[in-house]
Amino acid sequence: MHLPTVVILALVINLIVGFYLYLLYRRKPKDRCFRLWSFSSISFVLGGTLVALRPYDIAAFFTFFVADCLLLLAPILVLAGLIQFSRFRYTRRRRQQAFALLALTAVALLSVHQHPGILSVLIALAIGITFCLCAILLQKSVITEPTFTRTLQGIFLLHALTMFTQVMLILWQWQSLNSNGLPESSVYTLLSHILLTTFTALLLPWLCFLKLERKLTLKSQRDGLTKLANREHFFNQVERYWQQQRPLPAVLMMIDIDFFKKINDKFGHAVGDSAIKAVAQLLSKQLRCNDIIGRIGGEEYAALLIDLDEATALKISQRLCEQVEKQLQFVADAKVELTISIGLVYVDTSQHDYVSALKAADEALYSSKRAGRNTVTLGAVGL
């Protein structure tokens, strides 16, 4: 295929994708990644256009320094957009460090802009490192769809490898560089760079669609008030745990707010809702991140504590009762003096089915209620 035709076609596609991404941003302004990725596509198109103008009588400052800076800016903007999908905390200090690093890079590139070979090496290295960072950031993404994320991650790593290969070619054939600071054999790496950038631009919008799908999935699985797992999702998680080949022993816990009807009658439903949320937040803080917690009724919660013995489970349950009584005396400026009752059972998934375990934990909870509330009862699952 004719190389100039491929280049022009790739630039046109990037321009169209950039315009499409900007339209998406105008429609969903909260998704700033669309704007960043739109600017990334435009930056690549402008940089590629300036590179194509190098044979003409145009100042080298624009066709080399400005062009290469625009080409480097494209993956940097991709990286900035990916932060929205990652668990990376982009604090103010890190933002200042990033801008300082960009300023130093610009100064370094400006100092060598009259040496095309050195400039090409620095730009290729910077682009390669940036795409490596993109791959790492995608590894920590909140999007867990494996096929898509691995594909995009593979493109990032392949892009980085292409840039590092270009650096090796430049250094290996340093004595025979052309006026662009590149060896003639690097035409294939340049073509790969253009095509991979185009593939990246085409794939990026899917991240936002996957994010929307994830948000809808979470919404269907979460209780709207507490953000804990809702009843259906909690029981599905428990059933899935039982279906694992070698699940660890676990403790199933039922938790109920004491005298909740009196709270609603005395203080109103708004305070009642605040009480439900406050207990849910305390449970989330006190239990481990790998424990499964859900709201299965109005003021009733359930938890599956994985890989735990009876003695430790009892201590945890007693601590939960103590913390609720201590920390939740006041809710929404009302003196409600919240307490909870807990029923729990120790289960071996190879011997007990989850339906029997849930029933036994529920019976233990009612025993706690009958015992005067604000207490813990350890039940047993019948074989």
Outline of the structure:
The chain has helices at residues 3-27, 32-52, 60-82, 92-111, 116-139, 146-172, 187-221, 231-243, 260-267, 269-286, 310-327, 354-370; strands at 250-257, 292-295, 300-306, 330-331, 334-335, 340-347, 376-379. With 383 residues, the chain is of the alpha+beta class.
Description:
It holds the Pfam family GGDEF. The chain crosses the membrane at residues 6-24, 36-53, 59-83, 95-112, 118-139, 151-174, 186-210. Keywords: Membrane, Transmembrane, Transmembrane helix. The protein has 383 residues and is an alpha+beta fold. It folds into two domains: 3-219, Rhopdopsin 7-helix transmembrane proteins (Up-down Bundle); 231-379, Alpha-Beta Plaits. Helices cover 65% and strands 9% of the residues. The protein contains twelve helices and seven strands. It has helices at 3-27, 32-52, 60-82, 92-111, 116-139, 146-172, 187-221, 231-243, 260-267, 269-286, 310-327, 354-370, and strands spanning 250-257, 292-295, 300-306, 330-331, 334-335, 340-347, 376-379. A five-stranded mixed β-sheet has the order 2-3-1-6-7, with helices on both faces. A two-stranded antiparallel ribbon has the order 4-5. α10 (269-286) crosses α11 (310-327). The chain is elongated, with a radius of gyration of 29 Å.
